[in-house]
Design goal:
Elements (H helix, E strand, L loop, with lengths): L3 H17 L1 H9 L21 H6 L13 E6 L9 E5 H17 L7 E4 L8 H12 L2 E3 L6 H11 L3 E4 L1 H13 L10 E4 L6 H11 L2 E8 L4 E7 L6 E3 L4 E6 L13 E7 L10 E7 L1 E2 L11 E2 L4 E2 L4 E3 L2 E3 L1 H9 L4 E12 L2 E10 L5 H15 L5 E6 L13 E3 L4
Parallel strand pairs: 3-4, 3-5, 5-6, 6-7, 18-21, 19-20
Antiparallel strand pairs: 1-2, 7-8, 8-9, 9-14, 10-11, 11-12, 12-15, 13-14, 16-17, 18-19
Helix pairs in contact: 1-2, 4-5, 7-8
C-alpha cells in the first residue's frame, strides 16, 4: 500500500536519481520513461522495472549515485552465476541498515542482555556484518564467529552462554544434529534463533526448534537492498514485518509485470526509498511471496509479507511440468516418516526426463513403503512420475552455508 508519505519519498527518489544516477538516467532515457509521468500512487506501475542483469551490466561501480567521497563501503553478491553485483553504501546507508536490523532483533524479543553468536559469513557478503551492526546498535554482546569450525562454535556457545543464534537454516540444522549427537543439549543456553538467507520447510523448522529448544524467527534481505534485516517474523509467526519507511514492496505477476493485489502470490519488487549510495527503483527480486492484508496480532504498525516460498529462477521444468523446491518441501512435510532433508537429481535418458528424489526418513520407518507413498503423492500433487530413494537421517550432506537441493544434469 502506497500512502502519502511513501509516495512523497518515492517522488523525491525519482528526482534524485534523475540528477545523480548515471545508471537510472541512461536506463530511463533508453526506455523512454519521464519521471514527470508519475503524478499519483497508481502511476508507480508505469515506472520501468529494474532487473538483476542490468545491475550486473553496471559492474563494477556503475550503480554509484553519489560522489566518491561519500562512499564508505561496498558489498557484493556472490557472483556465482556471472559478474557480481557491487552495491556502494554511504555512511547514512550503513546507519539506516543498522537501524532496520536493530528493529529485527527487538521484534524477536532480543535485548541488550542477550549474547548473539553470528555464524553467517563476513566480508563482501552482507550477512555477518549486518547481524553484527544491528546487535551492536541494540547493545547486545556479539560473538562474531563467522561460518564453519563447528566444534569451536559449540564450545563458544557453551563457554559464553550464547542465547541467540544467527544462522542459515542449513547450518542451524547441522549444529542441532551435532549438539544432539554428542549429548550436549543441556550444556547450551540458546533461547532464540534468527534464521535467514535461504527458504526452509516446516519439517526443517520443527527439527531445529525441537532439537535446540529455541524460538525461531525468519529474517529476510538481499544484498541489493541493504542486506538481511529488511523484514522479520514476530512471535505470532503470521508473516514477516518489513520497514515501510525505508522500503516500498510490490508483488507482480512475474510473466506480465502486472501489479497484483494484497494477498495474491507473485514476485516481490522492492524500491529502496532513502538509500543513497546505490538506490534501487522497482527491483525484481525473483523471490515469491505475497503481501498480507490487515493488522498483525502483535500490534506492530509495520506491514507484512509472507515467507518466501521460492524463487522464479529456482523453477525447473520436468516432463513439461514446472516444479519449485517449495512444492517438494510441502509434500515431504505432509508425509509422516519423511524428514526435512532432500536432494533432487534430474537427467535425460532415452529421450526422456528422469527425476530422482532422495530424501531422509525417520528411524524405524520402512523405506520401501515410504518411497511408494512419496512416488504416489508426487504424481497426485505435482503431476509426474518419479523415482524415490529413502535414506537414513544424516546420509545427505549438510552445509555450513546454503544447501544445494536441485541437481539438473540434463545440460551438463
Amino acid at each position: 500500500m502506497c500512502n502519502d508519505s511513501t509516495f512523497e519519498k518515492l517522488l523525491a527518489l525519482l528526482r534524485r536519481v534523475s540528477e545523480h544516477s548515471e545508471f537510472y538516467k541512461q536506463k530511463y532515457h533508453r526506455e523512454g520513461f519521464d519521471i514527470r509521468e508519475i503524478q499519483t500512487p497508481e502511476d508507480i506501475a508505469k515506472i520501468p522495472l529494474t532487473t538483476k542483469n542490468e545491475l550486473r551490466d553496471a559492474y563494477p561501480l556503475g550503480l554509484q549515485a553519489v560522489p566518491e567521497e561519500e562512499i564508505v563501503r561496498i558489498h557484493s553478491s556472490s557472483g556465482t552465476t556471472g559478474l557480481p553485483i557491487i552495491m556502494p553504501y554511504t555512511k547514512k546507508d550503513v546507519e539506516d541498515w543498522a537501524i532496520q536490523f536493530e528493529r529485527c532483533y527487538r521484534m524477536a524479543g532480543v535485548t541488550d542482555l542477550d549474547r548473539i553468536q553470528i555464524t553467517p559469513g563476513y566480508g563482501l557478503w552482507t550477512a555477518g556484518i549486518g547481524f553484527q551492526a544491528g546487535a551492536e546498535r541494540l547493545g547486545a554482546m556479539v560473538v562474531p564467529m563467522g561460518p564453519g569450525n563447528t566444534p569451536k562454535q559449540i564450545q563458544m556457545m557453551q563457554d559464553l552462554k550464547t542465547t541467540v543464534l544467527a544462522s542459515t537454516s542449513s547450518y542451524a540444522l547441522l549444529l542441532a544434529e551435532e549438539i544432539m549427537s554428542k549429548g550436549l543439549r543441556d550444556t547450551i543456553h540458546l533461547k532464540k534463533g534468527i534464521i535467514g538467507s535461504e527458504r526452509w520447510g516446516d519439517k526443517m523448522r520443527a527439527r531445529i526448534q525441537q532439537e535446540l529448544g529455541i524460538e525461531l524467527y525468519d529474517i529476510y534481505g538481499l544484498t541489493e537492498a541493504y542486506g538481511p534485516g529488511i523484514s522479520i517474523s514476530c512471535q505470532y509467526d503470521q508473516g514477516m514485518h518489513y520497514w515501510d519507511d525505508y522500503l516500498y514492496f510490490e508483488i507482480i505477476d512475474s510473466a506480465t509485470g502486472q501489479v497484483l493485489p494484497e494477498g495474491e502470490l507473485g514476485e516481490l519488487v522492492i524500491t529502496t526509498l532513502v538509500k543513497e549510495g546505490s538506490p534501487l527503483i522497482r527491483y525484481r527480486t525473483h523471490d515469491i511471496t505475497r503481501l498480507i492484508p490487515g493488522p498483525c496480532p502483535c500490534g506492530s504498525p509495520y506491514p507484512r509479507h509472507d515467507r518466501i516460498v521460492g524463487r522464479t529462477d529456482d523453477m525447473v521444468k520436468v516432463k513439461g511440468v514446472n516444479i519449485f523446491p517449495g512444492q517438494i518441501d510441502s509434500l515431504l512435510s505432509s508425509l509422516p516418516g519423511a524428514s526435512s532433508e532432500y536432494q533432487v537429481h534430474i537427467d535425460h535418458f532415452n529421450g526422456k526426463d528422469r527425476l530422482r528424489l532422495r530424501f531422509e526418513k525417520e528411524p524405524e520407518v520402512d523405506a520401501k513403503t515410504l518411497e511408494d507413498t512419496v512416488v504416489r503423492s508426487f504424481k497426485n500433487r505435482i503431476g509426474i512420475t518419479i523415482a524415490a530413494e529413502a535414506v537414513e537421517i544424516g546420509v545427505l550432506p549438510r552445509s555450513e552455508k546454503k544447501s544445494k537441493r536441485i541437481f539438473d544434469e540434463r545440460y551438463a
